[in-house]
Design brief:
This protein is α/β, with parallel strands linked by helices and 215 residues long. Helices cover 49% and strands 15% of the residues. Strands 2-3-1-4-8 form a 5-stranded parallel beta sheet, sandwiched between helices. A 3-stranded antiparallel beta sheet has the order 6-5-7. The relative contact order is 0.19. The mean pLDDT is 94. The structure holds adenosine monophosphate (AMP).
Amino acid sequence: MNIILLGPPGAGKGTQARILVEGRNMVQLSTGDMLREARSSGTEMGKIVAEVMDKGHLVTDEIVIGLIRERLTSGTAEGGYIFDGFPRTLAQADALGNLMSELGETLDAVIEMRVDDEALVSRITARATCASCGEVYNDQTKPIPADGHCSNCNGTDFSRRADDNAESLKTRLLAYYKQTSPLIGYYYAKGALSSVDGLGEIDDVAEAVAKILEG
Ligand code: AMP
């Protein structure tokens, strides 16, 4: 099964993707993670995208489609792929459709994660991530354990994303509504769209996602 998790920044796409990776042996393809990797490895492309990302703007379609193409053509995923943070524009959605048919793959579900904007701001500004395994914490709802060790991998190094600040979030939200939200209509028209309430507890959202995947 290949699926897209669609929703604004902070909707919980990454958290749900990790649950699906663990429970269903799926492979998470997060263009945000790929771009952060590129920037921290100091490649030419990493340098180009760093400033764009920090300001909260979208990186060019050409770059992200290239990253996804590279991953899809160089590996396999028995449990299927989870596209997390991709596609974000109509051009990316078309490119993904073409790429999937080229590879003889299907897109089985597009899951929209709905959350209201106020919740997003407080979620994002309270977010921290384990630097070793990527487990996501939140100062209010899922604080870093009191002993300072990640509950998943025991790591002790936690980081906050450079673009998780109120100013950059405004631009990211605008980019979502302007460039990404049209994908909701696009996939609805293709008969592929389902929605979940992303504001619930993590386990409840995971259950709603599982129900959609089980048809
Ligand atoms: P994310 O981790 O998905 O929130 O992405 C972080 C940042 O990476 C975004 O604000 C964009 O600058 C960039 N980015 C990630 N995915 C895409 C994409 N599919 N298209 C364009 N820019 C992207």
